[in-house]
Amino acid sequence: MTEETKWALVTGASHGIGLELAKQFAEHGYDLVIAAEDGGINQAAEELSEGGRHVKPVQVDLRDPEGVKHLYDVATDDGRHLDAAALNAGVGRGGRFVDTEFEDDSDIIELNVRSTTQLAKLVLRDMTARGSGKVLFTSSIASTMPGSHQPVYHASKSFVQALSEAVRDELRDTGVTVTALMPGPTATNFFKRAKMGDTRVGHMPKDDPAQVARQGFDALMAGKQKVIAGSPSTKVMGLLNRVTPDALKAKANRFISTPSGQH
Fold first, then answer.
1. Each residue of 186-244: pLDDT tens digit?
2. Is the pLDDT confidence value at 3 over 60?
3. d(C-alpha 144, C-alpha 165), whole Å
4. In terms of Cα–Cα distance, which of 132, 38, 39 is closest to 85?
5. What is the C-alpha to C-alpha distance for residues 88 and 44, in angstroms, rounded to an integer?
6. Angle, helix 16-27 to helix 40-49, in steps of 10 degrees
7. Quick check: 176 and 223 in contact, CB under 8 A?
8. Helix residue spans in the chain (DSSP H)
9. How many domains does the chain have?
10. Distance CA 73, CA 75 (A)
11. HEC string of 95-144?
């Protein structure tokens, strides 16, 4: 490890947007600590290291506070410091609030909200002490609308969005920047895991995760506050959400998120 070595941490990096973010960091000269719950993180590390970058995979369940601490300890082992971090790990679950299991809601809260907050605090305390660093929170366009038939997921992303923008303001004079990445529906395994395959949003065309990651990385490097990432239609949706009444947005989300046969 030399003084010129730059290190980035990426969570949820075994596939989808997280893997594509890791590729962006690798292509721009960063060595990597990558994390995910599943064993695919080891295959991701092999792929990412083919370009000559040093990649350290960590298979860990971030829903467990000890898992978050373990990841951070590994990421900062041997005096390593993080120049950038992409806090991307997240999960969703479709269904009406009264029909879904609390265990599923709890998984969303633990991963999307609690673990993101815990890891951000660890990362940002070190960055502010050094006076430099960049953090990317993967929020969502979902943060801008009530999530009928995805209520806890949308609420979790509203939390992440608000946290990102508030912390950014707090750190405005520290040399540390915070950016929120706000993708729309993207071609990952999110909808399958969320049991939303039999919905309109599950079937509709989706954005390319590589495009989303590239736009997010560029925004992070430029120190931007936030970026609605993806296709032009996603960007238009983000603009419309600024002026659309919440009741109408909830109805629209219900329309695309209700399983076939339940409309």
1. 999 999 999 999 999 999 999 999 999 999 999 999 999 999 999 999 999 999 999 99
2. no
3. 13
4. 132
5. 15
6. 20
7. no
8. 16-27, 40-49, 65-75, 102-108, 116-130, 151-170, 190-193, 200-203, 209-221, 232-241, 246-257
9. 1
10. 6
11. CCCCCCCHHHHHHHHHHHHHHHHHHHHHHHHHHHHHCCEEEEEECCHHHH
Amino acid identity, position 14: S
Strands 133-138 and 84-87: parallel
> DSSP letter at 32?
E
Does 58 map to a domain? yes
In a domain, 108, yes or no: yes
CATH number at residue 234: 3.40.50.720
- The model's pLDDT over 32-83, given as tens digits with 9 standing for 90+, comes to 999 999 999 999 999 999 989 999 999 999 999 999 999 999 999 989 999 9
Q: How many CA atoms lie within 13 A of 40 on its CB side?
A: 11
The domain containing residue 167 runs over which residues?
6-257
Place of tokens 């409309």: 263
Asked whether residue 228 is domain-assigned, the answer is yes
Per the domain annotation, does 178 fall within a domain?
yes
Q: By C-alpha distance, which of 17, 26, 71 is closest to 49?
A: 26
